[in-house]
Design goal:
Number of strands: 9
Structural class: alpha/beta
């Protein structure tokens, strides 16, 4: 009788797809999968895509797949890069919602349950995220910063949020942490229909920030490892890493990168006409003014340093 009740409860709940692309994650993926299968939320589809790892990742995932029928395992024939590997998961995902999980992320048991409830109660929202606890690779606590809760952004709020997402300084802005949240999968697929090639997390989040709510659940429900080296250094041969290094290593690289991001956003049918007229232009002006001034100050600093010699 109890099993029947659990099955009925599961059938009434919206399906959540967990997207886990992985490359050489043998050292951490067991902890990540343990935290996923222990979730109190039962209606899960867990898709793990191994990007042709050359360590024990695939063997570990096979053992989990045999134990839990919710896990679907696939393997790329060669390393196709992080975004192509992720897209292969998104195309086959069947859930109402989707979570993007790293192979070193761990979640508290009620993580998914809390985020699903937040989205179900906020139909205008594209995603829901919680307070993430960041730790170093040596398991040292770093921070657990809060995010801003915006159920449905006004024009002014959308401008403010886009500015924080797009104006990239030396450290990533706090808003980028929303990528760790639970997304409406229909919106993700609608976005992907326009752009099969994704130019980074920032542009992806910016497209949602224009017109949709971002819900913040103020509870520390996940642990995130902040690696000592950025992705582009840890995975130097990944197509994203190569293109990103080329962009930021040139004198005008960051400005060129934001020009491409704005072109991407203005041309997207995913973003409303209202946002293209009232949100994107002022953000564009402010971002490029700030980037231009930053570039000028760097030139002045280099000139003064050379003069002192």
């Amino acid at each position: 009788m109890q099993d029947n009740n659990m099955t009925e409860k599961k059938d009434r709940l919206p399906l959540v797809t967990i997207s886990m692309p992985v490359f050489n994650g043998a050292s951490s993926i067991s902890n990540a999968l343990d935290s996923i299968v222990a979730q109190t939320y039962p209606n899960l589809e867990i898709i793990v895509s191994d990007n042709a790892s050359d360590d024990e990742t695939f063997d570990i995932c096979q053992r989990y797949e045999k134990k839990d029928p919710r896990i679907v395992l696939q393997r790329q024939d060669s390393n196709v890069g992080v975004y192509a590997n992720s897209r292969s998961i998104w195309k086959r995902a069947r859930g109402r919602y989707i979570l993007f999980s790293g192979c070193d992320d761990t979640w508290k048991p009620n993580f998914i349950e809390k985020l699903v409830a937040a989205l179900e109660n906020n139909p205008h929202a594209a995603l829901a995220a919680c307070r993430a606890e960041y730790y170093s690779e040596r398991d040292e606590f770093l921070d657990a910063k809060p995010l801003e809760n915006l159920e449905k952004p006004t024009i002014f709020q959308a401008i403010k949020r886009l500015y924080h997402l797009l104006y990239i300084g030396e450290e990533p802005k706090n808003y980028n942490r929303y990528i760790l949240g639970l997304f409406n999968l229909d919106l993700v697929k609608k976005f992907m229909a326009d752009y099969p090639d994704l130019p980074g997390d920032t542009a992806f989040l910016s497209a949602f920030a224009c017109d949709y709510g971002f819900i913040f659940v103020d509870e520390p429900l996940m642990k995130k490892i902040k690696n000592d080296k950025p992705f582009r250094e840890r995975y130097k041969d990944d197509p994203y890493s190569i293109s990103h290094r080329k962009a930021i290593e040139t004198p005008l690289g960051r400005i060129k990168m934001d020009i491409e991001r704005f072109a991407y956003l203005f041309s997207s049918s995913f973003i409303s006409t209202r946002s293209k007229v009232f949100v994107l232009p002022p953000v564009c002006i402010v971002v490029f003014w700030g980037l231009g001034m930053s570039f000028i100050w760097k030139l002045i600093g280099r000139f003064l340093a050379a003069f002192k010699r």
